[in-house]
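Lab channel / #folding
Pinned by the channel admin:
"Please post every new chain as: sequence first, then the C-alpha cells as a reply. Keep commentary short and put observations after the output so the thread stays searchable."

First post following the new format, from NK:
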Amino acid sequence: MLLNSLRLPGLLAACLLLGLPLSAQAQSAAEQKPTWTLGIAAAWSPSPYRDYDNKAWPLPLVSYEGKSFYVRGATIGYKLLGPGADELSLIVSPLGNRFRHDDTNDPRLRRLSDRDISGLAGIAWRHRADWGQVQASAQKEFTGHGGGTALDLSYGYPITQGSLTLTPTVGVNYSNSALNNYYYGISARDALRSGLDTYRAGGGSSPYLGINAIYRLSHTWVASAGLRYALLPNAVKDSPMVDASQTSSYFLSLSYVF
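Reply from TO:
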C-alpha cells in the first residue's frame, strides 16, 4: 500500500513502494478463484543516510489472492469489503527502513544507535473505476519503536496496449513525529557519543511519482518493473543523519501465476 540501504529491509521497502503491480493484475482472476504468484525480483533503493552502503539483492516473491485473504508482496490483508469496485481491508506490513551503524562510512554516524524494521497494522481502502484507481491506507506502528502513524494516498491509471500494461501513479505519504524521530532523530545520548547535534524529527509529508510496467510473456509467465521518485519531508532531510532531499526506488521481477 504504501512506497519509504538495500539489504533485506530496503528490498521490503522497495516492494511496498512499488506496490507489486503483478498482484493487482492477478486480482481480477482472484475474484473467481484463488491465485498464487511465485517469482524472483531485484530491487534497489539508495538510503538517504549519509555515506551508507547500498546494495541490490535478489528477493523471492510469493503472493496470494483469495476471496478474503491476500498476500501482496510484504503486505498481508483480510478483506472486510470486496471484491468489486471498492475494497476495504485490514492489513499488516513491515516498514522497511533500517539503520545499521556498521553500514555507514561516516565516522560520527558509526557511533549512533541502530534503528530496526518496524511492523505496521491498520486499514486500507481501494476504489477502481474506468478513470483509474484510488488507494488509501492508515497504519500504526506496533513493534515498540515509538508507536508512530503512517498515512498514504495515491492515484493510478492503468494503460493497456496488447500484453503490456503501464500504470503511472501519483501519491503522498505522511509519517508523524514518532515514526520519523525513531529513524532520523538523535537523542542526547547519541549526540554525546557521536558529536552530532541533538535532533527531534517532526511529522512530514512525502509526495511521490511512480510508474509500473507489466508484460505478459505467456498465460502464466509475467515480467514486471517499476520505479518511484519521492521527495523527503523537511523533518527527514534536516536530520544530521541524512544527506539527501529525495529517494528513488527501482524494481524488476519475473513471476509465474497459477
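NK: Residues 8-18 form the longest helix (11 residues).
TO: also worth noting, The domain at 8-257 is CATH 2.40.160.40 (Porin).
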